[in-house]
Amino acid sequence: MNLEPLDPGYVNERLSKPPFVAVPGVVNIRDLGSYPSTTYPSFMTRPKLMFRSAELSSITDEGKAKLRELCITKVFDLRSDPEIQRYGTPSPDIEGIEFVRTPVFEEEDYSPEMMAHRYALYASGKTEAFMELYSQILDHGGPAFSTIFRHVKDRPNEGCVFHCTAGKDRTGILAALVLKLAGVDDEVIAQDYALTRVGREPARQIVMARLAKIPMFASNTEAALNMFTCRTDTMIAFLMLLQERYGGVEGYLQKYAQLSPDEIELVRTNILVPSE
Q1: Count of CB atoms within 10 A of residue 251's CB?
Q2: Please, which residues have CB within 8 angstroms of residue 56's CB and are 6 or more apart in sequence?
Q3: In angstroms, rounded to a whole number, what is the distance separating the alpha carbons of residues 45 and 83?
Q4: Per its UniProt entry, which superkingdom is the organism in (predicted)?
Q5: Separation in Å, CA 145 to CA 16, 181, 232, 256
Q6: Could you read off the pLDDT of 251-264 as tens digits, one per residue?
Q7: Which residues pair with 159 in a beta bridge?
């Protein structure tokens, strides 16, 4: 797989188009709206309702104004305390926007042994390794995801952003759940997942500098580059896993996010709007 730097001209051109949104100081931010639903023909996902991104700690004043312009009222942070402390990336203060901590993993999930195993899975770059990682996210993420889905259920006119550090794995899994619930085609969901390859490119040097401080990656450039992996076939494999092991998106939300069928239907209704 080619994980060398992408052509800057291509990156800039792609980032200037939807679903990417220009928010100064934030990378990999994009709108989950305007995706057509194949399950519910003549409907699409609601624009300016749910945004996915990387962490927001470097957002500029202009970027803060842009979030308010987009009518975003909440930012859901999927990161854990040890992660924020390690990178020195606390959430910023933005007037009129509430930051809600919704960590997928607890502090005990960051033991040296567990982190070493997780890094080894990332370093391999293999689809089966990512399925193990993504199963961990599903198994632990129910309460965090529940908070976000309930926001959509109760406040469908208030936009939100959800993010982890890179906006790739935890964020990508949650985005897939949202789009799958809306009836978006699997290939389209996979393409949205793969866009992180472009969205994350402006932060490449920052990511590589962070990885250089971790012994496993400091001496293994290929393993470090595998951290950029976000292939469409990985997401297709995840959607199959979601169906086979968790009973699909509705089965998962009922068991792990403790949402009732009626609540799930209301979330779906709020996510969808008639196609333009």
Answers
A1: 13
A2: 25, 26, 63, 75, 91, 92, 161, 163
A3: 31
A4: Eukaryota
A5: 29, 13, 23, 9
A6: 999 999 999 999 99
A7: 72
The tokens for 246 are 């968790």
Q: 23: which residues sit within 8 A by CB, 6+ positions away?
A: 29, 53, 59, 63, 66, 67
Q: Do 55 and 226 form a contact (C-beta atoms < 8 A)? A: no
Distance CA 84, CA 18 (A): 29
* Contacts with 62 (C-beta within 8 Å, 6 or more apart), sequence order: 24, 25
Phi, psi of 274 (to 5 degrees): -60, 140
Written as six digits, the tokens of 160 are 């939100």
Instruction: Tell me the pLDDT tens digit for each residue of 177-195.
Output: 999 999 999 999 999 999 9
Residues 181 and 179: their CA atoms lie apart, in Å, by 5
Closest listed residue to residue 242, CA positions, set 141, 128, 131: 131
Domains of the chain, each with CATH number or no CATH: 8-270 (3.90.190.10)
* Residue range 85-111, pLDDT digits in tens: 988 999 999 999 999 999 999 887 788
- pTM of the full structure: 0.95
The set of residues, in sequence order, having a beta carbon less than 8 Å from that of 117 and lying 6+ positions away, is none
